Amino acid sequence: MIKLNRGQLFGLDLDRHIALDAGAGTGKTMVMAKRYVQHLLTTDQRSTRLLSAGPREDIIGKGLLIHPQKERTSTHDWGGLLPEETVAITFTRKAATELRARIRKELTQILPPTVKSVQEDMHFDPRLRSEADLEMLLSKLDSAPITTIDAFLSSLISPWIGMLSSKPVSELMEDEIVPLLNKEAIRLTWKVQNGTEAFLAGARGDVDKFVTSKNRVFQFMGGQYRADKLLEAMMRNSLFVEESRKNLVLPNSDEIIFDQEKIESLFTSLIDDNFESLFQQLHKLFQDWVDVWLDGGGPLVVKSPTTQGLNRFQFIQYLLTHVNPISDFEKIQWIWYASVASSSTFDASLKPDAGFFSNSRLSDAQKWAGGLKTKKDGKAEHDNQIIDAIYLKAESVIAIIRERLNSPIGYLSRNLGNAAALFSPFFKLPILPEEQTVIPKVLTTNVFENPPSSSYNFTQEMELSILRDLFITHQGVKQILRQIRIQQGLQYHDDRHELAEDLLLTRCPNVCRDWYPKSIIKALDSLALNPWSDHHIHQAILDASAHPKVQEDLEKRYNILTRIRSKYRAYIIDEFQDTNPQHYRLLCRLWGRRKREPDCPKPPAGDWDPTVCIVGDMKQSIYRFRQADVRVMKRAVASIREINRIEQNQESRLKGIRFEEKSRDPRPVGGGVGKYSGFVKADTEDIKFPAEARFHDFRLGEDGNSSSELETKKRSEGHVELSINHRTLPGLLTTLNHLFSDIFNSKHHEITGDWHARPQPLTPKRKSSLRGRLEWLMPVSKSLEPKPIGLGEPIDAFKHEGADLRDQSLQLMTSRIASLLKGEPTKKWNSEIKSYESQVETYRKVKPEEILILAHSKTNIIKIVRALESRGIPAVADREGPLLAKPVVKALVRHLRFMAYPEDENAVLGLLRNSTIGLDDATINQLFSAKLKTISWLNHLDEQIQNQELVNLILYSQQLSSSGYVKEALEIWIDHSDLFLSHPSTSERKDIENFLQLITKIIQEVGHDASSIHARLNELSALDSAGPTGKPSSITGAVKVMTIHQSKGLESPVVILFDPFSIGVRDSALASKDHIKITPDLIAAQLNPWPGKTAPLSGLWNLCKVMENTQDRAERRRQLYVSLTRVKDLLIIVGAPKKVTMDDNGSLVIPSKAFGIGNHGAMLLQSLWTHLHKSEEVTDFVINPSTLDKHDAFMNAQLDGIHFYHHMDCFERHENVPEIKKQIQRIGHFSKDEKKPDFPIKKIKQRIYLATHDLHKESNLEFIHGGPYLDIEPTIFGEMFHRLIEIGLPNPAISPSSLSENWLIANDDGLTSEQIIDEILAEFSMTDRQNITEIKQRLLVLGTLAREGALGTLTNGHLVDGMKVIGLRTELPFWYRHEMNHQDFFRYLWTPKGRKKKSRVDYSEAIFEGRIDLVLILENEKGDLYLQVIDAKTTGAINGFNEKQPKQGHPLQQTSGKSLDMQPISDAEKRLLESHRLQLILYQKAMEKMTKTISNTKNLNLKNPAIYSAASGRLLSLSDEAVIRGKEELDEAIMIHLGRETSK
Fold first, then answer.
1. CA–CA distances in Å: residue 365 to residues 311, 319, 333, 358, 437
2. Pairing, β 1425-1433 against β 1396-1420
3. I need a labelling partner for 545 at 20 to 30 A (CA). Which of 204, 676, 940, 1521 fits?
4. Residue 681 — very low, low, confident or very high, per pLDDT cuts 50/70/90?
5. Spatial distance between the Cα atoms of 45 and 1277, rounded to a whole number of angstroms
6. 1052: which strand partners?
7. Closest among 956, 949, 987, 981 to 970, alpha carbons compared
């Protein structure tokens, strides 16, 4: 049994809310599992004292339990919590499964004291009365809410889906479909031209305003491409967009009215307490500087009139004398105005190390005169000593100004001041020269009529107007997207989250917005700052007193919310640092006041009812791209501390179990291993358990010494840190602590903010004989030779030209991995003797699966896997980037394109150049030149290509594709082409497998047409990284390669961080490509109304850029923490900054400039420098690899040094076989003419699955003839008519009868019921269609025809041909097996050389399943019963149907006067009946097997099946001859399909 450390023991405190701040490798999962178990077993805890038990259910499946009920405590009497009352939420399904398994293991190691003999690792617990109690808990664990947040929310909304959505949807769409539907919603947005079209597309609310706003966004973005990118980014980050809207817009306003004060506060919220001092200093320094130039009459000041505009010097004077900033918002502007006047250009004023005061005076650049004379001109007019003295004094002041403006707070103030001045200047600028371009002009005219020629910025009103347009457009696109999803029957996680918001009354539910009064909606949308509060609901219910139905509905919804809360008494939430604002809000809604019955205890003194434990590590918050916000955890921790303080002071019911200075251990005292373990060893039989509880003092630290007062207070208020690390070897962890103390140091914070993590030293507790080791593979190339011309010589990244640092890093890393796998010694360069020294390998030989490589880019992952595979090292990637970008997949897509468009010359060219055919340009030119226009490309290739097997392969795959077997065609091509010769690696085989799985999904969505499949692939390919990715390979015993994000929660003996100098380099560029910055606080678009011209300047854009860039850099530091803390034994950094060199002394020299770039490599170098040199001042880093590992900083940490490897000579050389040689070897192997052995032909049984429509024959009856065109998809209309028959057809249900009950469900005639038809229209989402009246009228006409014809006459209980209906079934499910025996029937295997017998089929069966439209049970005058199958067809009832003049309508209408005659009369009826004859025979055979289940006492005779023609209302019955002939032909039709299957 593991002994818990003090922090873990504090985590078991069930009497207060807990925030576990768990560092990497500190055993948080174990604490969560143990805490969960203690919630179940402890009868006296906060949850049981303050909350009554919720609705408890008995055990499901009691028959599976071993112990009798009398030995088991009933669930209603159980003193602790039950699993269904205890919620545990994790980040992934895998983590949830692991946590459930941990909890189960914890439970199974506990037994009641009554057990006599158990295993050594078992422990007694007196809180269990018997083994039956344990069995009860374990049986409930499987259904307990231990899951992800998405799954938990889905389980909440599932029972209430009917009241949350008018059109419930259950299918969760695939991730790659999400961006496609987003694009479709955006496309429809641009398409709508007016409010009506917008409403029909799905927009709601003020649709006219939506149309106006989206048009303005389109204009201001300068066209559709940029506008598309902007909206796609907004849809990807919808949650942050909504959060920023809530943050910026005044509450309770019908319109979007911005909170001006809140927006201005964003500009100043980023500065710290040092700002005021900076402003005062700068104000005085600029005054001193001006006084220097004015001293002695100002001999160097240019005396120029101000009527033409102030020069720079005069402008600074104006700032000092006429501008008096009061607020911080004004002061930051003042600083920027002063700095921009002191800079040569606008851009220069915003640089980190700006060069203010050109040549010690003011610049004359950009047509804005400085206003000061040069030293030379001054000396020409005045005494040299005076001029020199003035310049000397000025330079001394300038040096201080430069230092202040370039300080971190100065740099930040300049940039924020610039943003504030562009957004809302606080004073009116004086007149400046018209031609100057330093300070931008404010654009006040119509931007589209008069494009400015120089730099400009929008007014504040224009900026806010565009911001308002962005919010309105985003809301409208979301609404259109929602309608698209509903129409396609799809749903995504964000839809379920919105339904959860409605269920938990975070806002007014969407389904209520159309009928709740505006005042109620406004009240419900006013959620308090504390999301758990129900004040907004109480106010809404109070306001609804004048609207009884609304009040009743709202009270019902509130009652549901409080009952949901009553179900759960404790929450444990993992990975809380990656919680997004919406998830936090929803969880808080569940923590509010629950339903209280009269006998329930009063609510807790604090605001939260259940006991809450959140677990996370703010240093590991790295999912901002998924809209996680690290500040959420900080807010949650603050709330926990506040609520704990309230309960400590006000909650008297916790007296005796909760104390301010200590936590109670809920486990029984005196048991287990030793006095303080909390359990009794299992082999102890006679035990007495002391009743007193055990407590743990908050004032003591892990080492037993006193903790600080601050730490003690944190623990008392529930904020507990876990800092004992059990993962990483001590020496390595100590060194990492030193590095992170610098990486997370506040000196790196350009802006103060809640998003910065603080360093947390971890205490190493892992015991091992190994010593931790840190290596850096930093390539330094020597002089390079030209690349070899011949393909037979391998390219060496360290020897030949053209390789970059990444190529060299890759080669160096694969060599190091090879040496680790083989246990080979290494060599290190010694700059003192300028040679290599052999090193004894101090680390053990490793296995491939013990190595984890982390890369930032998916492109890098692909390269890494390929490089390892080329060295014979097995490697597997969790994800390797976009699947459709893989070379082997591209080859298959090119072949698919040819199958889709065999006459497209580009498709032909792609096929011929494909790696599987690989014709050279000369041969291709010959093929194209020789082709005649009258000959198809397939015939031309057949004639011209000499390789007959290749021709056969092309023709056969094309034949399969054109027959609808696209996937089978691709499989044939994969199996028989040279694809595996060109792409032989294991990872590429996995790519092929993933591609075929993707093709299967696409076929399910778009059908079997090759062109449709290819079109969908093009759509997915355009998504790039958002498109489909390959599923990870299941290869074992391989090196694992993944991104840092995917490594969360993992650990490995060897961790390699690849190319850290590229991590973060392009983040800002990538973020700007979407032309919008999105944060939870603010969004801003990069507007450019005139493509090709200079974009306008924007204060909001500049502010948002500062905020986003700072948060990105803070997250980048957290990413580095995550990557380095995965390691157990050996950490390897691979990569080098640019311009790393080897000097003349043989030492490695890393330039100091490499330290200032905000990538992971620079962070590591900076922290390493600080650790080694104990200095903040950075110079070039000079390294002797041979002695660095002996540095005192590492020796004191008990680390086996830091080992630098810079060249391939550091490792054993192995032969590198060029890829071309490997290819030749593979071709030679496959080209050997070896005789393959003949195998005996197996005898098999064949089963195929067919649909009834596989038996159809084309009738060509659906065409327009006479009547109007009805604008509706025929299949949709057909389904609607079938639905009318299903629920509107009367059933006389004559009793008494021998029929089973389900045939005798009486139903009134509703064929012409407008209410039923309206319900059907709503069910099929037809209510918004413009032609709904026409559709409804058509259904009414067809319903009338059905009632007046033979079908309606029969089902209304009347006689037709001497028979009447006594019972019926609509939409009757059936399953039918058609069996056949064969002789000499073979399955063949296709090969390019011809077909080969694969097996002989002696017996086959075809399986059919589906639904029969209608089955009638009829009775004649003698009392004999007959069964008749009827299939309803809407052919002719849609297009060409003439409602007023049937004789002028569709041919099937022209017999409508013969309504009771059941024999086909016209040719159209005969063709319709003939085309569905086999389907009817099949239905009759299926029903023949079911007759005994229909009537137990009477035999059922079979009446010939019939077609019901909706166009005429006639029943068309098959003749006896047609039935006999159909039974014979059914076998033949099935044999055709069987033959197709056997020939595949």
1. 11, 20, 22, 10, 9
2. antiparallel
3. 204
4. very low
5. 61
6. 1127
7. 956
Residue with tokens 């200079």: 1094
Q: Phi-psi category of 834—alpha, beta or left, where left has phi over 0 and alpha has psi -120 to 50? A: left
Asked if 620 and 1118 touch (Cβ cutoff 8 Å), the reply is: yes
Place of tokens 């005139």: 1090
pLDDT at 1239: 56
**CA angle centred on 1267, ends 1261 and 1271, rounded to 5°:** 85
Distances in whole angstroms, Cα of residue 626 to Cα of each of 615, 630, 1050, 1235: 19, 12, 20, 57
Return the bridge partners of 875, or none.
1039
CA–CA dist 796, 782 (Å, integer): 12
Does 1091 sit behind a cis peptide bond, omega within 30 degrees of 0 on the bond before it?
no
DSSP state of 1208: G
**What is the phi/psi pair of residue 288, to 5°?**
-60, -40
Q: What is the DSSP letter of 1117?
A: H
User: What tokens were used for 578?
Assistant: 């990656």
What is the rounded distance in angstroms from the CA atom of residue 162 to the CA atom of residue 422? 50
Residue with tokens 């076989």: 1217
The predicted pLDDT at position 1248 comes to 86
C-alpha to C-alpha distance for 266 and 274, rounded to whole angstroms: 17
State both tokens at 912.
């011929």
Token pair recorded at residue 278: 């900076």
Q: pLDDT of 1121-1175, one tens digit each?
A: 999 999 999 999 999 988 888 888 888 888 888 777 678 988 998 888 887 777 6
Tell me the per-residue pLDDT of 242-259, one tens digit each, with 9 for 90 and over: 999 999 998 877 789 999
Helical residues (DSSP H) of 504-546, grouped into ranges: 518-524, 535-543
Residue type, 763: T
| The two structure tokens encoding residue 1203 | 């080992």
Strand 1242-1250 with 1148-1150, pairing: unpaired
Alpha carbon distance 1151, 1180 (integer Å): 5
Structural element, H or E, at residue 146? strand 146-148
**Mean pLDDT for the stretch of residues 877-884:** 78
End-to-end CA distance of the chain, in Å? 60
Q: How many whole angstroms separate alpha carbon 172 and alpha carbon 493?
A: 8
For tokens 């020796």, name the residue.
1195
**β-strands 611-616, 570-573 pairing:** parallel
pLDDT in tens, 1496-1514: 778 899 999 999 999 999 9
For residue 218, the one-letter residue type is: F
Q: What is d(CA 484, CA 181) in angstroms, rounded to the nearest whole number?
A: 8
In this prediction, residues 768-795 reach a mean pLDDT of 77
By residue count, the chain amounts to: 1544
Cα–Cα distance measured from residue 185 to residue 1439, given in angstroms and rounded to the nearest whole number:
30
Dist. CA 1224–CA 1237, nearest whole Å = 26
Residue type, 1110: T
Out of 463-477, 487-501, 887-901, 1016-1030, least confident range: 1016-1030
Could you give the CA distance from residue 888 to residue 896 in angstroms, rounded to a whole number?
13
Determine if the pTM surpasses 0.85: no
Alpha helices (runs of H) in 1463-1519, residue ranges in sequence order: 1467-1475, 1477-1494
Rounded to the nearest 5 degrees, what angle is found at the Cα of 115, between the Cα atoms of 114 and 121?
130
State whether residue 830 is helix, strand or coil. Answer: strand
Within 10 A of 1397 (CB to CB), how many other CB atoms are there?
A: 10
Is residue 985 helix, strand or coil? Answer: coil
Retrieve residue 995's tokens: 């591609």
- Per-residue pLDDT tens digits for 11-43: 999 999 999 999 999 999 999 999 999 999 999
Q: Tell me the C-alpha distance between 632 and 304, whole Å.
A: 57
pLDDT of residue 533: 95
Cis omega before residue 1296 (within 30°)? yes
Q: Is 269 exposed, middle or buried (0-12, 13-18, 19+ CB in 10 A)?
A: middle
